[in-house]
Fold this sequence. Notes:
361 residues; 78% helix; globular
Amino acid sequence: MVIPDRKPYLDGLRGVAAVVVFIGHLLLSLFDAFWIFNGRAAVCIFFVLSGYVLADMIDRSKMSLPAHVLRRYVRLAGPMLLTSAFAWGLLAVGAYRNAQAAAVTGSQWLALWYQFEPSFSTMVWEAVYGAFITGTSAYNSNLWTMRPELIGSLFVFVIGSFSATRMWRAIFYIAMAIWFWSDYLMLFSVGALFFDFHSELCRLMKSTVLRVASLIAGLFFFIATERVLNRLNFPHIDMMKWQMLSAVLIVAVVLTWPFVQRLIGGAIGRTLGRISFTLYLIHLPIICSMTSWLVIKLPPTVAILASVTLTIVCVFGASLLLCRLVDEWPTMISRVAGTTVDAIVKSARDSFRQRYTAIMD
């Protein structure tokens, strides 16, 4: 099935999820607010969306599997390297004050980061290899998501490339979901199934009552913490399962409810989607440097309000200014890398065929 290339409401949803992660980290830094923040539910939305969008891309694209893999790697590693270099630079000049600020705010989370000596070579290794292979994310803790992003992408590419029919793809995606039942990779298979069975999903979610109920349930599990669920006597299962359920419900509603699509697919939503990856990658170094410095230097009566206000302005402003460098240029380079691989493969294949024909003749 073919769905139009760009869906503004998916960009809007991705942007909202990135903002939630940023605001959540800001709250953790200033209030140690673990009890009001369930940030990994927003990350789960990223994973479901990636499964959907990549299944769409593999369905429409004529690129080879190696080209898709290289394109995806460059698409992720480029922004990671640029923003990790930014984090390394701040560490090299001694700009981080998060440990001192943590002593003021009482945030154990804020005190965790950048307590080591800077190493440019280690930073590069982490951005282009370590984050993908070992999950290393010392220079930017948000890079922990890149390992499941790349591995989940590979599964979608392989299944999409070698499964000739929708039914075979469904079998493999369901098998993937069962195999990775306790892993974020399961969400990529759900997103891919949402793409392949989009029409069926729309029919299933046709009722407004079901849409409203699914959205309410999704938002509840999105914001609910373990403490809340325990007080309400929900089953004692891994919080990750509730977060994954939240993401699946929310994405299902967004894919099938035009009202919500219009709500988050407007100009603001599209802008948030455009800067989402940049915002996601740069906000932690800013919180650990500028925000922390403000907490230390400003009078206690105004420190928190001023820190929140200036941090929001700085993170959104920097994301708007840097998104072309951090996100859009690496995306263009990744496309060139993919087409270059295909051109090389095609040239080698044609050359082999010519030589084979000449020998046979």
